Amino acid sequence: EVQLQASGGGLVQAGGSLRLSCAASGSTFDDYAVGWFRQAPGKEREGVSCISTDNGSTLYAESAKGRFTISADNAKTTVFLEMNNLKPEDTAVYYCAAVVEGDWNDCNDNDFDYWGQGTLVTVSS
């Protein structure tokens, strides 16, 4: 069973960039899909971006398209979320999660079984 550790959050000014990392332990991400999700204060958790480590296909929320990039290292031990042109509305706790390939259809948190702790991203205006 894979365990996940998210890191890389912090405080950044609007227009800035951050790179989040999600490291696997106990297993690699081979045969898993990995997603990034976020939850802002008073809001429901939402999917940001997901990647299939089997074929590299990716999905992005509309709010993330053109600004965020999800990727995995060749060893499939870490999944990254590169976030550029950050906006105050991106402020949230960001979580990474994994699901066995074949058990998901969309970047929907209900489909993901294994979760890491969150990392806080704060974007100041």
Task: Summarize the structure in words.
Helix content is 0%, strand content 50%. The protein has strands at residues 3-7, 10-13, 18-25, 32-39, 46-52, 58-60, 68-72, 78-83, 92-100, 114-115, 119-124. The strands form 2 sheets. Strands 2, 4, 5, 6, 9, 10 and 11 form a 7-stranded mixed beta sheet that branches. A 4-stranded antiparallel beta sheet has the order 1-3-8-7, with no helix packed on it. β5 and β6 form a beta hairpin.
What distinguishing features does this structure have?
125 residues, mainly beta, 7-stranded mixed β-sheet, 50% strand, globular
Helix content range of the residues, please? under 10%
What is the N-to-C order of secondary-structure elements (H for helix, E for strand)?
EEEEEEEEEEE
Shape: globular
Average of pLDDT: 96
Task: Report the strand count.
Answer: 11
Strand content: over 45%
Chain-wise SSE layout:
Blueprint: E1 3-7, E2 10-13, E3 18-25, E4 32-39, E5 46-52, E6 58-60, E7 68-72, E8 78-83, E9 92-100, E10 114-115, E11 119-124
Parallel strand pairs: 2-11
Antiparallel strand pairs: 1-3, 3-8, 4-5, 4-9, 5-6, 7-8, 9-10, 9-11
